[in-house]
Amino acid sequence: MATLTLAVFHSLNMRLAEQFEWFADWCVGTSSLYEQIARGVADDPELLALAEEIPPKRGTANILFAAVHWHLLGGADHPLAEYYPTTSDDPKSGNPLPAFQDFCAEYETDLRPLLRNRRTQTNAVRRCTALFPAFSHVSRTVGGDPLALVELGPSGGLNLCWNQYAYDYGDAGTFGTSECTLDSEIKGDKMPPVSDDFPAVISRVGIDLNPLSVRDEADVRWLRALIWPEHADRHRLLQQAADVAERNPPDLRQGDAIEELPNVLAEIPDDVPVCVFDTQMRYQLPDPAQNRLRAHIESAAQERPLHWLSGHKAADRWDNAFTLDWFDGEGYESLVAYEQHGRWIRWLR
Questions:
Q1: Pfam families, from UniProt (predicted)?
Q2: pTM reported for the whole predicted model
Q3: 57, 75, 34, 52: which is closest to 120 by C-alpha?
C-alpha cells in the first residue's frame, strides 16, 4: 500500500511538473519572471506538493503564482517583492527562484487558503473593445431598443460596465468619454459598427460561481494578482475600470451560470430584448455542459427576443485569438475576432 501511495505521489508530481513546464513555455516572450519561476517549480518537489493544494481544473500555475502575488501586492515584507515590477520601481533581474522558494516556505500557512478556495477569474477589460461593436450590432438588429445584458462567468463584472468606458481605435477614432479609455487596433478592411451613440442598456446581471466585488479590496487585489507582473498596461486598465465600476457596480449573482440562466431570464420582461454574453468561459466547459447551455439559449430564444455573444477559440486562423460568435435566435455567425487580451480586433461581418 505504501508503495502504491508513493507511486501515486510521483505520478501526481510528474503531471504537475508538466503543467508548470507548459506554463513556462507559454510565458516565453511575455513574462520572463514567471517563466523562470515556473521552470523552477517543475523541478522542486516541495513546491509541487504545495501546488497539490489547488483543486483540479482551476489553472494550477495561475493560482499558485496569483496567491503569492496577492500577498506581495498586500505588502508582504519579503525579498521576493524586489523581483516584481508591481512591487518594486527597479525590479531585480537575477534568478528569482530562491526567493520564491523561501517565500512559499515562510508564508505557506497564509497561502493555503487562497490555493484551496480561489479561482482563475481574470477580468481582461480590454476585451470590451470587441464587445462594444458586437453590442452595437445587436442593438441595431433590435431597432435600438434598450438591451438587458446577462453575462455568464463575469468574475468582477467589469465587462458588464463596458458602456462606462471610452474606446480608442487609433486612426478609426475615439468614442465616448471616461477616466478609463480602452485602446485596441482594428485589423482588416472592415470598420466595426461603433459610434458615440452607445447602445442603450436597461439592466446588467452577471452569474458566477464565485463573483468578485469591485467594492471589496481583497477581491480587486485578487483580480490584480492574476495579471502577470510585467503587464503594466493591463494592471493600469484594470484599476481604472474597477474605479469606474465601483461607483455603479453591476448586479452579480452567485450560482451555476447554466442552471441559473433561466431564472435570471424569467425576471426580465418578455418584450425586452436580451443579450446573453461570455468572453472566454464557454470554451472551458466540457461538451455536455456546452450542450446544456446551448439548449437553454435556443429554448429561451423561442419565447422572447434573445441574442447570444459567446467567445470561442479561433482555431489556427490567428494567434491567441478568439471570436465572438453571434446567435440571433435562429442561427450562428462569427461577428468579431479579438486577441485574447483585446489588443486588436477584426470585424468579420
A1: DUF2332
A2: 0.90
A3: 57
Residue 185: which CATH number? 3.40.50
Model confidence pLDDT, tens digit, residues 23-70? 999 999 999 999 999 999 999 999 999 999 999 888 899 999 999 999
Q: Could you report the per-residue pLDDT of 148-191, keeping only the tens digit for each?
A: 999 999 999 999 999 999 999 999 999 999 999 999 999 999 99
Phi then psi dihedrals of residue 254, to 5 deg? -90, 130
**Is 12 buried (19+), middle (13-18) or exposed (0-12) by CB count in 10 A?**
middle
- The answer to whether residues 102 and 216 belong to one domain is no
The candidate with the shortest Cα–Cα distance to 239, out of 158, 164, 166, is: 158
Does residue 152 share a domain with residue 77? no
Dihedral (Cα; 155, 160, 163, 169), 10-degree rounding:
50
Average pLDDT, the chain: 93
Task: Say yes or no: 203 and 335 in one domain.
Answer: yes
First and final C-alpha spacing in the chain: 61
Contact call for residues 186 and 345 (beta carbons, < 8 A): yes
Whether the Cβ atoms of residue 237 and residue 161 lie closer than 8 Å to each other:
no
